[in-house]
Amino acid sequence: MSKPVYLAVYNTLADWEPGHATAQLARAGYEIRTVGPTLEPVTTVGGLRIQPDLALDDVRPSDAALLILPGADLWDTGDELAPFARRAREFLGAGVPVAAICGATAGMAREGLLDDRDHTSAISFYLAATGYGGGERYVEADAVTDGGLVTAGPTEPVAFAREILRLLKVYDDEAVDAWYRLFHDSDAEAYAVLEKAGVL
Predict the structure, then answer these.
(1) What letter does residue 77 receive in the DSSP assignment?
(2) Smallest Cα–Cα separation from 20: which of 128, 187, 164?
(3) Distance between CA atoms of 68 and 104, rounded to whole angstroms?
(4) Which of 90, 92, 178, 195 has the largest CB neighbor count within 10 A?
(5) Residue 144 Cα distances to 24, 46, 75, 117, angstroms
(6) 185 labelled catalytic
(7) Under a CB-based contact definition with an 8 Å cutoff, are residues 6 and 90 in contact?
(8) Which residue is catalytic, options 25, 72, 102, 164?
(9) pTM score, two decimals?
């Protein structure tokens, strides 16, 4: 049985960013466990109230298959979410992958986790404003995976999920490509590939 996937949740979380990934992972048999700053409920930017399953202090990399860090307004308004970036460093150091999208990429930059990895985000100068040292590793792409870390910008939740599905080897490359073409490009021909692979 696979280890659970940890989804970080915090106030102002961008609802639309982790949904494709968590839904597909759950369909593939992964348990999705929410991790909050504490066990207190949080409220997303869309007004959804989430009761965390775990508090960040109780999370250990050895217990998880992946840590997903969605974007949130709080990534850009102070250091409230810095503990999540520090925990991401622990995960990567333990060989457990991390996936960061939108504002969470700035958190990764501030923590120094993008200095020696290819990465992307909303736009290069957004990360440059953090003062990080990885500007030369910035890639103009929908999503990037390097050194166990997935990064993507806020408009690419499907590409973000694609990289996660590849990284965890949830499906073979042909099925992942077809899944992306179906959900990103509305490519009807991709449906038959997924049906044959037993993904749908």
Answers:
(1) S
(2) 164
(3) 9
(4) 178
(5) 19, 27, 20, 10
(6) no
(7) no
(8) 102
(9) 0.97
